[in-house]
């Protein structure tokens, strides 16, 4: 998985090249850690709010920090106690060592490690790796996206009819997506919002959106990848996504290929209560 200029194409021209190399190195370190655990055969503890956490979450968090963080940079991770000093930094790493822990515990292949590099509040580079499917996504907003080492881009679809929309497995289970059943959308439940965003960035799905709030570590890397792939990202109420906030819990997110932006936002306004 080593990122070489000879195979990275236009990513090598990115001003974030050194950041991309660090991200790729961290993804490889996470892959090694994942190899020591078997999905579906690992015990989980439960944090406040009933979110599961495993030994794998914590172990990957350690290797990500060692691989990524440099002096003068901030750090925000789901598995690290928050340090408010990050708010004073121009450059911040926002990571989720294991997004989709529930799926990991159940043995479902819908989990990943998610890494975002944020510059002045904007996610400008990201990397996501799903060890179950061996899919890797890497990109920067000034250079594009690589999917398994090859150039990729968000989908070019211009109408929602028949569009593949990746939905939160838990939201579907709670019945929150019933309001979309009568539409022409193809709705596919899936775990890990980061993985869903990565698939949209690579053109493997047309769109995804969440109906409940998400933390920055859930969405920052995927948002960077979608925009790097030429797609559209905004909060559920159509505001620009800004990262490294004091409170990292954000409104729901919507992401798609650029051609679906207006129709998708209209659909959300029609079916969801969105308070400005």
Task: Please give a handful of descriptors for the protein shown.
276 residues, alpha+beta, Fructose-1,6-Bisphosphatase, Chain A, domain 1, D-Maltodextrin-Binding Protein, domain 2, 2 domains, five-stranded mixed beta sheet, globular
- How would a textbook summarize the main sheet? 7 strands, mixed
**Which structural class fits the helix and strand makeup?**
alpha+beta
| Elements, N to C (H/E) | HHEEHEEHEEEEEEHEHEEHEEEH
Q: Which percent range fits the helix content?
A: 25-40%
CATH architecture descriptor name of the largest domain = 2-Layer Sandwich
Task: Describe this entry's structure for a reader.
With 276 residues, this protein is of the alpha+beta class. It folds into 2 domains: 5-152, Fructose-1,6-Bisphosphatase, subunit A, domain 1 (Fructose-1,6-Bisphosphatase, Chain A, domain 1, 2-Layer Sandwich), CATH 3.30.540; 164-271, D-Maltodextrin-Binding Protein, domain 2 (3-Layer(aba) Sandwich). It contains 8 helices and 16 strands. The strands form 4 sheets. Strands 3-4-5-6-7-8-9 form a 7-stranded mixed beta sheet, sandwiched between helices. It is globular and about 50 Å long.
What's this model, at a glance?
With 276 residues, the protein is an alpha+beta fold.
